[in-house]
Amino acid sequence: MNTRRRLVGVVTSNKMQKTVVVEVSRTYIHRLYKKVVRTRKRFMAHDELGCQIGDQVRIVESRPLSRRKRWVVQEILRRQVGAELAAQAKGGEG
Hints:
This protein is mainly β. The chain has one helix at about 85-94; strands at about 5-15, 20-30, 35-45, 55-60, 70-80. It has one domain (about 5-94): CATH 2.40.50.140.
């Protein structure tokens, strides 16, 4: 097993060619105030699998592919329910 970091997040944008924006959410308890803190971070990732908005994906660290892209989509863990139906309905109208 290599030492590359792997994160799980949700695709929030796929408007670019072969690039998606993945939002990784994390919750932790603040050490001093004991309050649950929710943080989220957005990563640009290279996408050869054809991810759709709402898909849950695993991204893995890679060499720099462009100015802001240092991650690659490794696998799609869960597809967005209804994404296929919306794509079919959209294609059927035109």
